[in-house]
Automatic annotation (TrEMBL):
Record-linked Pfam families: Gate (PF07670)
Domain Nucleoside transporter/FeoB GTPase Gate: 42-155
Keywords annotated in UniProt: Membrane, Transmembrane, Transmembrane helix
Name under which the protein is recorded: Nucleoside recognition domain-containing protein
Species name: Clostridium tanneri
Transmembrane segments: 6-24, 36-58, 133-154, 166-188
InterPro entries linked: Gate_dom
Keyword Transmembrane helix on entry: yes
Length: 192
C-alpha cells in the first residue's frame, strides 16, 4: 500500500509539473535530488564505519561488559521470572548493553535469543506474551542511548557544525521513555 501511495505522489507531481509547463524544473530537481542522495549515502557509509569501529573498540576493551555488570542488578529487580534464569538475563543484558552503545546490529541476535529464552520461561503456552516478554520489548524499543551513532552519523553527513550535540538530549529522552515504559508495564501488569 505504501508503495502505491509514494508512486501516486511522485506521478501526480511529475504530471502536474508537465501540465503547468514546468517539466524542465521537475527534471532538474529529480537529477539534483538523486545526486545529493548519493553524496549523503556515501558520506553516511563512511561515518557509520567510523562509529562501528569506535564501538567495536569499546566492546573489545571490556566497556560493554562493565556496563552489563552494572545493569544486571537493576534488571533483576524489574524482571520477575527472567531474574532467576541466567540464560535469559544474560541475553537481555547483552541486548540492552549493545543497544546503549549504538551496536544495533550486534543487539539483534541477543534480542532474538532473549525472546526465545523468555518464551521458554513463559508459563502460558497459548502464544500469549508473558509480562517479562512485554517488558523486554518495551525496554528494547525505548532503550537508553548513550551513543546515538545513527543520529550523529546523519548529522555529520549533512554538514552539522556539532553532530554530537545530540548525545545529552538523547540520553535524557531515551531515559525518560524507558522509565515511562517500565512504569506503564508494571502498572498494566496488575490489570492484565
Amino acid at each position: 500500500m505504501i508503495n502505491f501511495i509514494w508512486f501516486s505522489i511522485l506521478a501526480i507531481g511529475i504530471i502536474f509539473g508537465i501540465v503547468t509547463g514546468r517539466g524542465a524544473e521537475v527534471s532538474k530537481s529529480i537529477i539534483v535530488s538523486a545526486d545529493s542522495t548519493v553524496k549523503l549515502v556515501i558520506g553516511l557509509a563512511g561515518i557509520m564505519c567510523l562509529w562501528c569501529g569506535v564501538v567495536k573498540v569499546a566492546e573489545r576493551s571490556g566497556l560493554t561488559d562493565k556496563l552489563a555488570k552494572l545493569l544486571r542488578p537493576l534488571l533483576g529487580l524489574i524482571f520477575k521470572e527472567a531474574a532467576r534464569d541466567e540464560k535469559a538475563m544474560g541475553a537481555i543484558v547483552m541486548n540492552l548493553t549493545a543497544n546503549m552503545m549504538g551496536l544495533s546490529n550486534a543487539a539483534t541476535p541477543f534480542g532474538i535469543k532473549a525472546m526465545e529464552e523468555l518464551k521458554r520461561l513463559n508459563k502460558n503456552k497459548d502464544g500469549v506474551a508473558s509480562n517479562d516478554m512485554a517488558l523486554f520489548l518495551v525496554l528494547n524499543a525505548a532503550c537508553v542511548q548513550i551513543i546515538p551513532t545513527t543520529v550523529i552519523s546523519i548529522r555529520a553527513a549533512v554538514g552539522s557544525q556539532n553532530p554530537a550535540e545530540t548525545i545529552i538530549p538523547s540520553i535524557i529522552t531515551t531515559g525518560i521513555a524507558a522509565i515511562f515504559g517500565v512504569t506503564m508495564c508494571k502498572v498494566l501488569q496488575r490489570y492484565f
